[in-house]
Amino acid sequence: MLLPFFTALRNAKVPVSMKEWLHLMEAMDKGVVGGAAGGRVEDFYHLSRAVLVKDEKHYDRFDQVFGKVFAGVETIGAGEDLTTDLPEDWLRLLNEKFLTEEEKAQIEALGGFEKLMETLKERLEEQKGRHEGGNKWVGTGGTSPFGHGGYNPEGVRIGGPGRQGRAVKVWEKREYRNLDDQVELGTRNIKVALRRLRRFARQGAADELDMDATIDGTARQGWLDIHMRPERRNTIKVLLFLDIGGSMDAHVKMCEELFSAAKTEFKHLEFFYFHNCLYEGVWKDNRRRHTEKIDTWDVLNKYPADWRAIFVGDATMSPYEITMPGGSVEHWNEEAGAVWLKRATQQWDKVAWLNPSPERYWNYSASVGLIREVIDERMYPLTLDGLEKAMRALAK
Predict the structure, then answer these.
(1) How much is the average pLDDT of 285-303?
(2) Contact by Cβ (8 Å): 313, 243
(3) Rounded-to-10 torsion of CA 370, 373, 378, 382
(4) Angstrom distance (rounded) from CA 314 to CA 1
């Protein structure tokens, strides 16, 4: 039963040896976890990763293979389950709701973020059982603002995958993976564009031979007169803020290429992850984003105004995430995202936002317009031409 898992790992170039596989089988025989024999798939996931994966750089591939092989068996992840207060059968989608455009137009939103959250609290207090296909309770396949698998122009998605892309808040546990900074294929042109952001200076120890000065000194003195000088380096310092997860999943390859190129081109580079909009916390590792979050205030205070700040994201979200306290889809933020973005632009006057979505679609998203307004229209498409324009603006 587990043999396809071993084959899939090898096909994905995860270096799993037969000896490690036999160790895993031995652990299963001794009942370390129930695994495929009836225990939790989550426990088998942690055991197999610990036994089979020797280097953290292979975690992403392992996770992808594991999710594909065991798809539908059980949700794999660690940490708090955000849906534990709602019975699982309430969220099981039995029939999906299909509406015409005329029927969708007749469905009205509740009237704002605060009203939406207040109504959700009331529904949870009143609801006593499962509902499907309705327009009021937490359920599936209906027109209620609460649940999944149906349609509502403004709601809270609870359980299940997103389909309409309209959720104001998402009530579920979400896992993102780190971008692979070793991706090289397709990064050459990106590197060329990034090289426009350069300012060279000779700083540090004199450990490079100055050939011209040595030749001139030797000719003048009549003996070998060696001159040394500091190495010429790019002194530009860059902060890279990367939107991760959600709608950005469609742009992972492009962002990985940009990330890899930036790590090669900029000696002084610091990167941080965020989701949708900048809030009070950022993180360096998506696997530990809930436990090792970095205060945005600390980032603002640590890196002075001579750093360049580059944000990478599609800026596609509910407008409430930008304008309202508590608007984040994942947590209750005390201050609106626009407040934190404005603080960033005040701290670093050289700011650019790179958007991987095609520029022709920007006007169809209210949130893109809001972000552009907050950052003073310094948004550029994540294309080679857009990159060159962004680098020129940052180099001024």
Answers:
(1) 89
(2) yes
(3) 20
(4) 41
H helices of 222-326, in order, are 252-265, 296-302, 319-323
Query: By the 8 A CB rule, do 232 and 201 touch?
Result: yes
- Summarised one tens digit per residue, pLDDT across range 108-139 is 565 666 666 667 667 666 666 555 556 555 65
Amino acid occupying residue 240:
L
Tokens 């959700």 sit on residue: 120
Contact, 353 vs 315, CB < 8 A?
yes
Cα 243–Cα 244–Cα 247 angle in degrees, nearest 5: 95
| Structure token pair of residue 392 | 């020129």
Residue that is written with structure tokens 């081109």 in the block: 265
Question: How many whole angstroms separate alpha carbon 263 and alpha carbon 206?
Answer: 25
- Identify whether the C-beta of residue 62 lies closer than 8 Å to the C-beta of residue 9: yes
Q: What are 33-39's contacts with CB under 8 Å, separation 24+?
A: 36/1, 36/2
